[in-house]
Write a structure and sequence with these properties.
It is built from 12 helices and 13 strands. By secondary structure, the chain is of the alpha/beta class.
Amino acid sequence: MARALHEPTTSLEKKDRCGDLPHRPRVLLGKMGLDGHDRGVKLIARLLRDSGAHVIYSGLWQTARSLAIGARDEDADCIACSMMSNSHLVLVPKLLEECRRVGRPDMIVNVGGIIPQEDVQALRDTGVNRVYHTGTGLAEIVDSVREATKPYGPASFEHPAARLGRLISLAHAGALPKDAERRRPKQVIGITGAPGAGKSTLVASMAREAVRRGDRLAVVAFDPMSPITSGALLGDRLRVDFNAVDEGIFYRSLAIAGEDYASLDAIVELIGASGYDRLIVETVGAGQNDVAIRKHVDRCAVVVVPGMGDSVQMDKAGILEIADVFVVNKADFAGESKLVRELMDVAGGRPIHETIATQGKGVVELLDALFPPFTT
């Protein structure tokens, strides 16, 4: 019987293999260099998610520096990277050097791909933890992630972003030191909306514009945890081109069950104490009744798209009520004018912005509306 090309030759049962660890493993997956094939890395991402790990997928065409910054800000337990043939002896040493430069010389790096056996020792000598070949079993990959996951140590890193990354991990785990410095940012904006509305792409577009302006911006993006394994695929940061924005923004991905924002207030205050006065909090894909975010932010932007429903849906109680700003994203889709008209009936004077996030259209105006100049 034929098999789908995205399926492994030997699959693993979906079950939690990480529940006994000090915390859920946080694994940064990335493809360095010009490798444009992502089928394999997506397979690994699903495998680890279905084994109870939290997988941060950074996407294709990453540089050594962008992966190092991502692993630091995400406080990853390890980086798992691959690349095209014949580039490993150049890119992998660069990755290890960038980890040192951005303040995480202790970062565990595992490398996979088509790597000649004679090059394995050379990679190990540079500091690589493990090297995997095409025949590596899925269970072995899970075991390597388990091995890399240790109890969180104190936030004693010299680099301020590395310290912030660890403090957020401790706060999310309910173990934040009582003496941690805390201060709320001046502007905290929640971005919410249904799955597929383009929230992550919109946030990425706003982040690029903020960096272009020289603004200092932080983003916290939530994704859902599996109800079966407690694993998660944290894929929001792949929308941001970190090869371009570099360290211009601080971006952190977190997994939650439902609307469990118990750690969010502490995380917001940690980010403020680290010098960020503008913060975006992106929620998980929200349903009609998912409104808890309004208790933790100053203002909410609700993202909607053409085709979301008729006028009766607009009149229902729930998420549309918490909007301080409406964002009609994918405004180039059919039905945009009808959606705007129906929103005007329920907006009660609240502003409505139209955007095409993939093209950056309307993003400048939206950013100005969400983050007006500070008043002295």
